[in-house]
Amino acid sequence: MKPIIHTILFSSATVFITFCLIKFPDQTLEASIRGLNLWWEVVFPSLLPFFIISELLIAFGVVKFIGRLFEPVMRPLFNVPGVGSFGMIMGMVSGYPTGAKIAARLREEKQLTQVEAERLVSFTNNSSPLFIFGAISAGFFHDAKLGILLATSHYLGNAMVGICMRFHGRQYETTYKKHARRFSVKQAFWEMHEARIKANRPVGEILGDAVINSIKTLVMIGGFIVLFSVIIKLLFLVGVSSMISSIFAFIFSIISLPESFALPFISGLFEITIGANMISQITSSPLLQQAIFVSFILGFNGFSVQAQVASILAKTDIRFLPYFISRLLHGTIASILTIILFQPLYLNKQTFELKDIPVYQPIDVEWMGLMEKLQDIGPIITLLALMVAIIILLRRNVKNGGVK
């Protein structure tokens, strides 16, 4: 009975979206272009270097080296092997879905068990500092100091989620080692060397695979960005967003929150950038309330990012449900931390800087300048990377054809 229900739901949703596409062609095209521009200018060029580097570090055994060094820290705190530290660091620096990408690769390399990979995915999908400081704080709120509050709540909240998720799946573990290995640089080096020798592939092949795999993942991510940009627009046009927002408006009124946050909150649950931008435009509400909602949708990741993560995890045996639960937990914890830290990290800092540095705010200029530069050179990087991928694939096809 359950498969039949799923068939009806999926087919009905597809027919509904198809009908909406036919009815609203102009709005659909506009939403598609907006999503494509976001991917073309920002997402692809900002994530490509991190994806390629992560592939190379795994192939050359450097992740084994890092994992061996951080084993005494990662195992007691998060109940994952030391290699999880690589996913944690890269996810924090480059943003989602890098954490899921690395966790899936480590699982494919048999460096993580299924349960360990599920724990790692739950707390390594962060927003990047560039997105928090550049896009949200400086771009939407025109106040980069707010980024300190949002970033602290976001990253500290994710670490707390990792500590909570360390207990996930312990009843299924049979190979868990009660003792953490000691810190040893020498042993870490030899494990790195063994991992590189075991790979047994030419450097050129490793570089080519890193580029191709990274670009394939980024193209998939771009498809999801465009798709959800269109879906959000269609839901707004047919009135579904208004119906859902009215339910949330009633809930917000009960807990003494402004009803005006309902529609931006719903939009943020689907796509973070759109939701955060809409929340920043509600100037009638206190900044603390705006920061609370932004912190929640940053932690929740949005259905668009979750769909990207689900697609990456689908190629492995890593289950999606633990990740989804951790996103709800992260959003809640980050919101609570925003309330607690608002006074010391924002109000006190504002008071101090207004007294001592009332005019110049260089951090705003730096982050905005970085975002503008990325948008200027981003399309060029994207185009060049796609051309390189095509050349690599063509050369491999010619080589394989010659062998035959």
Automatic annotation (TrEMBL):
It holds the Pfam family Gate. InterPro entries: Gate_dom (IPR011642), Spore_IM_YlbJ (IPR014226). This is Sporulation integral membrane protein YlbJ. The chain crosses the membrane at residues 7-24, 44-66, 291-313, 325-346, 377-394. Residues 42-134 form the Nucleoside transporter/FeoB GTPase Gate domain. Keywords: Membrane, Transmembrane, Transmembrane helix. It comes from Oceanobacillus piezotolerans.
